[in-house]
């Protein structure tokens, strides 16, 4: 199986709930390794650029308001099929549809405040990782 990297965000609602560690534990239990991480408070410009593909959607303004409402944790996860594995750990975008035991089922309250982000394809993973991290900030396993 392919070792991949994916980009992940613990969103402002989950940081406010004090469940960063709970969420990191889920990544680790699933065999994903955190190879880069930092806490940041997104500017509107940074959030708008990150979600540029949604800029024509009716929820875009609310999404940017939410993503800039408090600090987030951004991280790079590495492991076998990391992109799909992380999407499974997160659960469906709408927590009402997320499987039991997923991050969104357990910590999200609504589709607009849904606890976590994860890249949905190799192309988006590459773009999103480089949007937040320089190559010298990523620390792959050395042994
Ligand atoms: P995902 O985060 O699961 O990849 P999308 O890329 O479709 O989902 O959407 C990005 C984010 O935009 C979602 O995580 C959610 O926060 C927000 N969003 C998506 N759809 C809606 C909606 N119908 N109403 C409000 N917010 C939404």
From TrEMBL:
Main location: cytoplasm
Enzyme Commission number(s): 2.7.4.6
Ranges of residues in domain Nucleoside diphosphate kinase-like: 3-140
Top-rank taxon: Bacteria
Binding site for ATP: 11, 59, 87, 93, 104, 114
Obligatory cofactor(s): Mg(2+)
Localization of this protein: Cytoplasm
Active-site residues annotated for this sequence: 117
Keyword vocabulary terms for this entry: ATP-binding, Cytoplasm, Kinase, Magnesium, Metal-binding, Nucleotide metabolism, Nucleotide-binding, Phosphoprotein, Transferase
Enzyme class: transferase
Recorded family membership: Belongs to the NDK family.
Name of the protein: Nucleoside diphosphate kinase
């Amino acid at each position: 199986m392919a070792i991949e990297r994916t980009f992940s965000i613990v969103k402002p609602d989950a940081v406010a709930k004090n469940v960063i560690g709970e969420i990191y534990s889920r990544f680790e239990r699933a065999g994903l390794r955190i190879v880069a991480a930092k806490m940041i408070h997104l500017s509107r410009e940074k959030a708008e650029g990150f979600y540029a593909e949604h800029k024509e959607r009716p929820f875009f303004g609310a999404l940017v308001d939410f993503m800039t409402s408090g600090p987030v944790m951004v991280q790079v996860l590495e492991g076998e099929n990391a992109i799909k594995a992380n999407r499974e750990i997160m659960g469906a975008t709408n927590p009402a549809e997320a499987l039991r035991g997923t991050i969104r089922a357990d910590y999200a309250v609504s589709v607009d405040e849904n606890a976590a982000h994860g890249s949905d394809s190799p192309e988006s993973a590459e773009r999103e990782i480089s949007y937040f991290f320089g190559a010298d900030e990523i620390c792959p396993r050395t042994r």
